[in-house]
What does this fold into?
Amino acid sequence: MKNPYQVIEANIFKIIDETPNIKTFVLVPEQPLSFKTGQFMELTVPGLGEAPFTPSGDLSKGEELEFTVMKVGLVTDALHVAKVDEPLGLRGPFGNGYPLQKFEGKDVLIIGGGVGLAPLRSLLYTLLAHPSKYKRILLRYGARTPEDLLYKEELKQWQEKIDVLTTVDHGDETWAGNVGVVTTILDDPDIDIAQAAAVICGPPIMMKFVTLRLLDLGFKPESIYLSMEKNMSCGFGKCGHCRLGNFYVCKDGPVFTYEKLKGLPEIWD
Amino acid sequence: MMTRFIDDANLTEFLSSLKNRYLVYSPQKEGEHYFLNRDGDFTPSEFRTLEPVKSLYLYPRGKVYPGDSEKEAALAILGVKSCDLFSLKIQDYIFQESLPPDPFYSSRREKGLIISSDCISPKKTCFCAALNISPYPETGFDLNLSPLSGGFLVEVGSSKGEELIKEQTSYFQEPQETQLNQRRQNRDDLLKKFAAPLIPQADSLQELVKKGLPDVWEEMAERCVECGNCNFVCPTCHCFLLAEEVHFEKFRLWDSCQFPDFARVAGGGNPLDRRSKRLRNRYLHKFDFFKDVLGYYGCSGCGRCIEACLGGIDLREVLSRLEESLSSD
It folds into this structure.
């Protein structure tokens, strides 16, 4: 019987500084892993522990896996001082991933907040590999300040291919774009809302207000896809930490339609 | 189901023959309580053990990587009570049926043998019958023992149990009508000891934990000292922490949803940031989650959490107070 607690070793191949407190780690696992975009892995710092992350890179690259990590706690603090060639551990992939087939033939509105753009970047790579399958792809992305924006170079490249709007909560002298939370760049998207899918990833408060705004705009609850963040530990529905209503987020999610969760009072807690 | 009679002397020999194939655990009395210990003589206990039977399938601290579940010796657990048999349905769902299975739990369960026994008299904290769970084993065992004068009725509950009887058929006799009647009488007497309703109507509990007023949770959680005892003694609680102490070695450690950091995520967000929310979480998991997912509650009525709570929180009182909070609304 396969042991789902098994750790696959992965060396750090490259570390990219994204923002003052976010780095992207490019890992080379000792064995190739097959993935659906939106699935997550448990990333282990040896001798310390693990935390869940959704790969942020281009999954078609095969041998490399990218994780974009904000420095916010025990495991991520240790990751941020890790060096190239150091070994890390991986378990997974776990969870359902994005239902790409449901997006086919539709407008896809992707909305990210802060480090929540990480899994959406992997989704963007996947969608942009076959752009003709989807009507239009739109990205709306907000961060706290201009220097907190992730993937600054790629944002420029995406802007040439798809409709991208960015915003920051607090601008500075370098910033000529929109200032305000991400809901301020959601008005009047040039899409057929009745036939569109929206994909949201970000902090709970951002996901809440974006969802409410999309409902106001006429999105159907079953067309709004949320990447839920809970304390996923084991990754396969055993350890109980990520229960949300009658779901274990690690196994039944992490991607849910709003339709599935809308009856839960604790959804945004 | 096949039923046989075995006398006291033959039972001793039969059970001792199991030691050739199994690590045998049976309830041993220490003070007022029974504990599951290795290799003691089997005596029919009046009620359940202090520790839940899960502790032999999911150790409080168990290495899960690297590790090989196949190499472990098979366990035979004797004197398991109906409440613990019920609880294994929950553990089986989580660790075996919900995919992928946990290889350690699955291997222990598949290789293991369970010889259950009827309760004789419930503890003051027992309320299985109020949840419509039979206080004597009806399912989930390989063999069940019902004590009679001079011996036991042995009921076969699985093909593994049937094999054992067929292998050592000389120990067993066809039961007599009077013996079957005596078991029926004993079981009727046992049920009468549960006659007084201890909790609100069983079929109302899901609604009560979902809709009961916040004041009840706040007030009850005032007594919680966040020790986690309720979770550790609970036979259906399955939550654990996956810990790492040395390079890529993974351990499963029992965890408690009453601990402040149980649901905390990176960055400090905590959906269960108050004791009242954590207490309610425990009840929602048992009476809402499992009811929807499996069709029955994740509570066996064993009463261990009542016995173990340092703050004196009584699950039966919480449920009754929730009911009052709605009826006086």
User: Anything to note?
Assistant: Residues 202-327 of chain B form one domain.
